Amino acid sequence: MSTEHPMTWREYLSSDTITSSRQATAQRVYWGVMGFFSNPLAVFGLAIVLVLSVMAIFAPWVATHNPLVQNLSGALQPPSAQNWFGTDEYGRDIYSRIVYGSRISLYIVVLVSVIVAPIGLMIGMAAGYFGGWTDRVLMRITDIFLSFPSLILALAFAAALGPGIENAVTAIALTAWPPIARLARAETLTTRAADYIAAAKVSGASSLRILLRHVLPICIPSVVVRTTLNMSGIMLTAAGLGFLGLGAQPPSPEWGAMTSAGRRFMIDSWWVVTMPGMAILLVALAFNLFGDGLRDMLDPRQSK
Description:
71% of the residues lie in helices and 0% in strands. It has 13 helices and no strands.
C-alpha cells in the first residue's frame, strides 16, 4: 500500500519538482504575489488605491457633509472636529468635497485607461507585426503625438472641445495612447521572430489569429504595467485641466478645480488649497508605487 500523502497547497506552490504547466503557472503567480507584498512601497501604493476606490464607492457614507451645500457664515474655517479639513470660501466642508472628488478622479482615470489601452495595443501590434508602410505610417502618427508635451496637447484638445468631464476624458485619451503603442510595437517586434510564430504561419494561421492567440498574450503584461504607471499622469493632467477651468465645472468637487479656487486664499487660509493638493500628490504617488510593484511582479527581468 502506498504511503504517499497528498501534496499540500504550500508544497504545490513551492516544490522544486514541476509536474504540469498548471503548477508552473500557479508557482509563477504565487512567487510574483509574494514578491509584490514583500515590497512595502508597492503595498502602500495598493493600499492608497484601495482606499480611494472605497471612498469613491461609499462616498455618501464616508463624507460628513453634503459637498454642495453652502454655509456662508462658516466660510474659511480652519480644520476642526466639525470640519476635519476646514471649509472653503462658501463654507462647504473640504473633507466631504475631497471624498466626493475621488469619484470624479477615479472615473477619469479608469475611463481614460480603458479607452487608451486597447487603442495603443492595436496600433502597436499592427505596426510591429506587419512592418513596412503600415509601421511607418502608424509610427509617424505616434511620433507626432509624442513630439508635444501631453499636458499641452491635452489643453489644446480640451480648449477645442470645450469644458466638461466628458471632453476632458476625450482630450486626455487622445494624448495618452502613444506610449502604449510604442511599447506594444517593441514587444511585437521581439515576438514575431519567434519560432512558434513561424510555425503558426506555416500551418496556415491567419494574421488576425496569430495576433490574438500568440502576440496579444505576450504584450498584455507590459501594457497593463504601462497603463498603471500612466494613471498618475492621467490624474495629474485631469487635475491640470480642472485647475485651468477646462475639466469638471463648478460646483463639482474636482480636486484640480478646488485647488484653483483655493489659491486666492492660500496665504490666510492655507487648508483650502493644501488639502486637495495633498490628495492629488498622495494618489499620484500611490499609482506610481503600485505600478512599480506590478512591473516587478509581472516582469521577472525587473526583479533583483
